[in-house]
Amino acid sequence: MTLVNIVLPPPRREGGLPLMETLMKRRSSRNFSTRDIDLQTLSDLLWATFGFGGGGKRRTAPSSHNRQETELYVALSSGTYVYDPVLNELRMVLEEDIRTLTGMQDFVSVAPLNIIFVADTSKITGKDERGTIETAYVDTGFISQNAYLFCASAGLVTVTRAMIDKPALAAKLSLRPEQVITLAQTIGYPEE
Fold it and tell me: What is the reported pTM?
């Protein structure tokens, strides 16, 4: 079986709403349309969420000591992918729709996109177990907030969630023991 990657168009790095207006519009929603997100908007969203910013070494969201330990797993109806910010593509990891596994709420299977935040804790050194987990969750929060701000600016809706059967989802994704699912984020257009 050959897994098919999705090459994304170059992200648009200009435009959008002014910051203060975006902050006023930022909110959580649990009501999603089934309308798919086009590839250009998906590319823009993923770049804004955790792509490479100016200079190519720093990401659009901070991480402790610039460890960049978080990967974005992208669950779409066409399959599940890992976002590659260097090549700006989605690398397929599963050729099946697993959106229902990304959370315990009904809307996760309706919305076109669920991002699963996976932290590679082996990249977080010099901390005890609690410090490692705290770092992973704080860094995920920064990344998730970028997605919130992009969604507010682009007319999309989103909600970050912790209600996930993490062992089942980790098994489905064949994650290694040091890869920890922190949160998931559902994204789509507002329900019509």
Answer: 0.94
